[in-house]
Write a structure and sequence with these properties.
One of its GO terms (biological process) is 'de novo' IMP biosynthetic process. Catalyzes the transfer of a formyl group from 10-formyltetrahydrofolate to 5-phospho-ribosyl-glycinamide (GAR), producing 5-phospho-ribosyl-N-formylglycinamide (FGAR) and tetrahydrofolate. Pathway: Purine metabolism; IMP biosynthesis via de novo pathway; N(2)-formyl-N(1)-(5-phospho-D-ribosyl)glycinamide from N(1)-(5-phospho-D-ribosyl)glycinamide (10-formyl THF route): step 1/1. Its EC number is 2.1.2.2. Belongs to the GART family. By secondary structure, the protein is an alpha/beta fold. The chain has a single domain, classed as Formyl transferase, N-terminal domain (Rossmann fold), CATH 3.40.50. Helices cover 40% and strands 21% of the residues. It contains six helices and seven strands. Strands 3-2-1-4-5-6-7 form a seven-stranded mixed sheet, with helices on both faces. Strand 1, helix 1 and strand 2 form a beta-alpha-beta unit. The longest helix is centred in the C-terminal third of the chain and has 29 residues. The mean pLDDT is 97. Bound molecules: 5-O-phosphono-beta-D-ribofuranosylamine. The site of 5-O-phosphono-beta-D-ribofuranosylamine has 12 residues, from helix 1 and strand 5. The site of 5-O-phosphono-beta-D-ribofuranosylamine (GRF) has 12 residues, from helix 1 and strand 5.
Amino acid sequence: MKIACFASGSGSNVEALFEAIEAGTLHASIELIVCDQPDAAVIERAKRRGCDVFVFRAKDYPDKPSFEREIIARLEAKGVERIILAGYMRLIGEELLGRYAGRIVNIHPSLLPAFPGKDAIGQAFRGGVKITGVTIHIVDEGMDTGPIMAQEAVRITEEMTRETLQQAIQRVEHRLYPQVIEEWMKEEANV
Ligand code: GRF
């Protein structure tokens, strides 16, 4: 299945998807990386893999519908069927939601509905909770809302720092995201 990944940052989850595809555990091809931050490390990662990247700056467009229409044109030109959000720091607007309804997934570093929004790892760490984790969900118009597909808990131990908690969460993300996407694509194919 042809997929696109949207990312704004380091792209370690995108890398994990490339690796799963290479290993033959994820049956998909990443046709395009969409990135809204011209300095993001994910751009270099994609180029190293020979994957096309569409980099844009929101401020170069009059509004969200305008840049989303351009993104849709680029996705359609490549036959993209599913969108994978991997650290894309923008709310998906009504153009993309209309065109790809129910076919956009997101990964979030907390057990939603706890700690939505930015810096979920810091929120959990500072909040003193003993358990946080990772959520993968279908995207709707809200911020980190939408039907939950999978969750996995990560325990916060006494000796953990914010950094080691982040590493533990990312290890879970990199294993879980390719697995859940693979299952999701299989289910959809059987409908
Ligand atoms: C991940 O923790 C993901 O859950 C969140 O943004 C982060 C992206 O990290 N939505 P990376 O760019 O994939 O390293």
